[in-house]
Amino acid sequence: MDALSRYLDENQDRFVANLGEALRIPSVSAQPEHQQDVKRCAEHLADRLRALGMTRADVVPTSGHPIVYGEWLGAPGKPTALLYGHYDVQPPEPLELWKTPPFEPTVRDGKLFARGAVDDKGQVFMHLNAIEAHMKIHGGLPINLKVVIEGEEEVGSDNLEKFLVERRSELDADVIVVSDTAMLGPDQPALCYALRGILYTEIEVQGPAGDLHSGHYGGAVANPANVLSAMIAALKDGDGRITVPGFYDKVRKVTAADREMYRNLPFDEATYLAAAGPPEPAGEKGYTTLERITVRPTLDVNGIWGGYTGPGAKTVLPGLAHAKVSMRLVPDQDPDEIFERFEAYLHKLAPSSVRARVTNHHTALPFIMDPAHPMLDAARRALARVWSKPPAMVREGGSIPVMTTFQRTHGLPCILMGFGLDDDQVHAPNEKFSLSSYFGGTKSVAFLYEELSRT
Ligand code: BES
Ligand code: MN
Ligand code: MN
After folding, report:
1. First to last CA, the chain
2. Ligand 1 midpoint to CA 440 (Å)
């Protein structure tokens, strides 16, 4: 076995410990009370990059959360990769459903449990481990590396584009590398070539000026919670199609060849559905499960509230009702255009007995690249050195807002090589990263740097 592989095998425990330190920092970007923790996490990462031997490691302030920038440019004549990842995490709530606390990383059954274990701190640390191994074994990296790790991915990456555009020439590279997606199974690596976009909105419906006695007023004034429920119900028809006028106008048609390709993917539908555990699957009529989560757009309520939600009963007619509603979008839908259509439609759905307000929290454009791009060959070769099956070329249902910026303003090919699994509980209680994925991913990344040096 070569020295690099041996180093990666022998240091696994420390890789877990190092990741654990970062996982202890509750860098929840959405929650203002964690603002200092987010900053602390950025500083921690910059310290790590410096300790690894990166020649530069800055914490760059933005009008939101800071960006960590690092670089090592000691391989003149070799390609330059720009590694992108995020150190912010989703809120850990509901806390009572965690078996061990979200920010106390714990290993059980070969899996590391913590908020951010796989999304995305663990996948960022695969790269830090790979950097460490190359530095220790070879005294440097096989390629030049620029590192951008942001703290606002989970809230829409509002300040990243400005940073990337302002530093366009400083950030020049030959390829973008991202590990923030999933595999198709524990022994089935994948390379991702498309992500859905998103439009994330909030609806507020106001009925009476304030809460009322539901007996004294019930029946005489509109109940905003009832009205909001009806409005939401009207957003999809019986076939699971979204009813917003013009919503599908720019959706690319799924061709017969596409469908054939999706059918042939090693996607294990039963395992995928079992990880979610519903009584039965549900979705848009006429499409398979895989198509529903990749090539088709969708609309989901992320949260809905209003009136009394505490223990026992309280007879109240609420003054306000709210819902957070997001839409996953596919090429060539434009989130801003869809927002206008959505807002106008909701105002039409709202009866004159209430006032409805719709706000746009954040958007991301759908991303798609050429799955046959030659740059992906380096990733294929790297994965072939670690896994027994060749990578599947997949589209993913989630979103990474910055990807279209890399594509449009930087004009660079992207390697999306991620190692998550369906049952990782991403964004949910008991998020985990399987250690076999963490170590296999670390090795794949270390080899990717080598393979990129041969391009
Ligand atoms: N890592 C995910 C994106 C992802 C999820 C890719 C599943 C592939 C499969 C990322 O951290 C994420 O959660 N993004 C958000 C973006 C949003 C807040 C703008 C998402 O998709 O909800
Ligand atoms: Mn992520
Ligand atoms: Mn995420």
Report:
1. 24
2. 22
DSSP track, 140-203: S-SSEEEEEEES-GGGT-TTHHHHHHHTTTTT--SEEEE--SB-SBTTB-EEEEEE-EEEEEEE
Q: Whose CA is nearest to atom 4 of ligand 1?
A: 398
118 contact partners, CB below 8 Å, separation of at least 6 = 419, 420, 421, 424, 426, 431, 432, 433, 437
The pTM score is 0.96
Q: d(Cα 403, Cα 423) in Å, to the nearest integer?
A: 25
Neighbours of ion ligand 3 (CB under 5 A): 119
Torsion on CA atoms 140, 142, 143, 146, rounded to nearest 10: -40
pLDDT value of position 450: 98
**pLDDT classification of 1: cutoffs 50, 70, 90:** confident
Mean pLDDT of the chain: 97
Per residue in 270-322, pLDDT (tens digit) is 999 999 999 999 999 999 999 999 999 999 999 999 999 999 999 999 999 99
C-alpha 358 – ligand 2 centre gap (Å): 27
Predicted confidence (pLDDT) per residue in 406-441, tens digit = 998 888 999 999 999 999 999 999 999 999 999 999
Sequence-distant (≥ 6) Cβ neighbours of residue 411 within 8 angstroms:
none
Which ligand 1 atom lies nearest to the CA of residue 192? 8
Instruction: State the residue for tokens 């993913």.
Output: 396
Which tokens hold the place of 434? Answer: 């399987």
Beta strands (DSSP E) in 22-124 are 56-60, 67-72, 80-86, 106-108, 111-113
Tokens of 90: 């989703």
3-state SS, 263-284, equals: HCCCCCHHHHHHHHCCCCCCCC
Q: Which atom of ligand 1 is nearest to the CA of 328?
A: 21
The response to whether residue 156 sits with its C-beta less than 6 Å from ligand 1 reads yes
**For the residues 192-218, what does the mean pLDDT come to?**
98
At 316, phi and psi to the nearest 5? -140, 145
Query: Is residue 147 a contact partner of residue 69, using CB atoms and an 8 Å limit?
Result: yes
Pairing of the two strands 190-195 and 392-396: parallel
Per the document, the length of the chain is 455
Specify the pLDDT at position 237: 98
Residue 268, preceding peptide bond in cis (omega within 30° of 0) = no
Order of all β-strands in the sheet with 197-206: 298-306, 320-329, 197-206, 355-364
Q: Are 431 and 117 in contact (CB under 8 A)?
A: yes
How does strand 175-178 pair with strand 392-396? Answer: unpaired
